[in-house]
Amino acid sequence: MAVTMAEISKLRKLTGAGMMDCKNALTETNGDIEAAKEIIRKKGQAVAAKREDREASEGCVLAAAKGDFAAIVALKCETDFVAKNESFVELTRNILNAALDAKAANMDAVKALEINGTPVANLIVDEIGKTGEKMELGYYEAITAPYTTAYVHPGNKLATIVGLNLPDTDYQVAHDVAMQAAAMSPLAVRREDVPADVVAKELEIAKEKARQEGKKEEMLDKIAQGRLNKFYQEVCLLEQAFVKEPKENIQQYLHSHNKDLTVVAFKRVTLNEE
């Protein structure tokens, strides 16, 4: 049977698939919309299976905060062209919003979500069918704190979320900290949070460097400790020099607004950072 343009347009609106794909699916199913949707989904599954060994190194990273909860979602694909596609960005945003509404704790929880009755995994397969590229959920991070904020760097390749300890925190102050975390790539909030193996490695590097500089063996520990303190100032968010005012660190900046204000958590997700 001949299919009408109205039927093709309806299926295209429901699936986002190309006009010819919709026409062919409707022709094959004699105009049965539901059966045609299944054909298009199976096409996505076939493409996904065929491209399983491909590398999804591009993608879209989005973040948002809602009250005491903030999250970052990274949906990955193969090319920057698809990463910038409006449909792909919208899918990433829809997954993020669903995760926020559900306060999803981890990646498994996100994968178990449904959006308008359709599982997230199926929506990704549908998008694969539209573009012909491998796609996958690459990262998911979330935090809960009395006050949360999010920052997405232009281009949708880098995003941060930050949690602070006071619910009445000024938006701009929190936003400044989120931008700091994006710009300066901290490893931890404070020095106590830096992994022990990282600390041990930095101490060893500092000792070896001092040794090569000809420092006396009995002075190596003291020198290494001094260099470790400098390392902490570079990688701990609260000790980093504030990018907008380098004469003060982030904790000093926060205390200048409220002596009790501090950061309790942050997450940073990026793609293709040089």
TrEMBL record:
Signal peptide positions (record): none
Pfam name, any one: EF_TS
Gene3D superfamilies associated with the record: 1.10.286.20, DNA helicase RuvA subunit, C-terminal domain, Elongation factor Ts, dimerisation domain
Claim: Protein biosynthesis is one of the keywords in the record: yes
Keywords for the protein's UniProt record, in alphabetical order: Cytoplasm, Elongation factor, Protein biosynthesis
Record-annotated Translation elongation factor EFTs/EF1B dimerisation domain positions: 70-273
Residue runs in coiled coils: none
Region (Involved in Mg(2+) ion dislocation from EF-Tu): 79-82
PANTHER family: ELONGATION FACTOR TS, ELONGATION FACTOR TS, MITOCHONDRIAL
Entry function: Associates with the EF-Tu.GDP complex and induces the exchange of GDP to GTP. It remains bound to the aminoacyl-tRNA.EF-Tu.GTP complex up to the GTP hydrolysis stage on the ribosome.
Name this protein carries in UniProt: Elongation factor Ts
